From TrEMBL:
<dbReference type="Pfam" id="PF13561">
    <property type="entry name" value="adh_short_C2"/>
</dbReference>
<comment type="similarity">
    <text>Belongs to the short-chain dehydrogenases/reductases (SDR) family.</text>
</comment>
<dbReference type="InterPro" id="IPR002347">
    <property type="entry name" value="SDR_fam"/>
</dbReference>
<keyword id="KW-0560">Oxidoreductase</keyword>
<protein>
    <submittedName>
        <fullName>SDR family oxidoreductase</fullName>
    </submittedName>
</protein>
<dbReference type="InterPro" id="IPR036291">
    <property type="entry name" value="NAD(P)-bd_dom_sf"/>
</dbReference>
């Protein structure tokens, strides 16, 4: 295997790959040699731009519109990813939504609460269940969590954190289920990362920067690098693990 292309010959599926952390993951996996299928919900122009970026690296990419909250969409996405390139080696669960709210708030948007659960928990579980029989032995599953699953520093985020904590528990359990086939299942927990949902120019950004050991926000490429490592050949004996990438935010 070319040391510069550790994922040569591999096929990856990334949910929520049209922007932010997901887009960075798609591009990094392609740079490491993988062909990539990724989902997007609405922004076709952004998805097309990611496809073009991957193709400029000499890899193949396919963008599939899918609603992560709809199980049938997720199942179709996984089946299409496998069928497009004839195999599936890597699944990255990156799609997610961030809905805040204080417990007991009479004005809480319950529909948004339900959709957050559908996307952040059920969507991930559906993707893994659909992918498990299609992944080759020695495959990789990586999900994106949050440092909040270890330490909640602010009020109003319990619902979101709970969804990510559920994926953390699933990760450990799935590692047991799939371990006999050599399939690893791991979680990457980002801290403050510069994305549309949490820009480094936001009003709260200075407070988050001050919480880190490095005194700065992370970038989507920082998370993509961690995912690429866990998806690669050097991480074959790492499973059921959580890799925190937060600049020391919860140190």
């Amino acid at each position: 295997m070319n040391s510069l292309s550790p994922l040569a010959g591999k096929v990856a599926l990334v949910t929520g790959g049209s922007r932010g952390i997901g887009a960075a993951i798609v591009k990094r996996l392609a740079r490491d040699g993988a062909d990539v299928v990724f989902s997007y919900s609405h922004a076709k122009d952004q998805a097309d731009a990611v496809v073009a970026s991957v193709e400029s690296l000499g890899r193949r990419a396919v963008a599939v519109r899918a609603d992560q909250a709809v199980s049938a969409d997720v199942e179709r996405l996984v089946t299409q990813a496998h069928g497009t390139f004839g195999r599936l080696d890597i699944l990255v669960n990156s799609a997610g939504v961030f809905v805040t709210g204080m417990v007991g708030d009479p004005a809480a948007d319950i529909a948004a609460f339900d959709r957050q659960i559908d996307i952040n928990i059920k969507g991930v579980a559906t993707a893994v269940r659909a992918a498990a029989p299609l992944l080759g032995d020695g495959g990789r599953i990586v999900s994106i969590g949050t440092t909040g699953a270890d330490r909640i520093a602010f009020p109003g985020v319990a619902d979101y954190i709970a969804t990510k904590a559920a994926v953390s528990a699933y990760t450990r359990g799935w590692s047991r289920d799939l371990g006999p086939r050599g399939i690893t299942v791991n979680l990457v927990q980002p801290g403050a990362i510069n994305t549309d949902m949490n820009p480094e120019t936001a009003g709260h950004a200075d407070a988050l920067r001050a919480m880190t050991s490095l005194g700065r926000y992370g970038q989507p490429d920082d998370i993509a690098a961690a995912v690429a490592f866990l998806a690669g050949p050097d991480a074959g004996y790492i499973t059921g693990a959580t890799l925190t990438v937060d600049g020391g935010q919860i140190a």
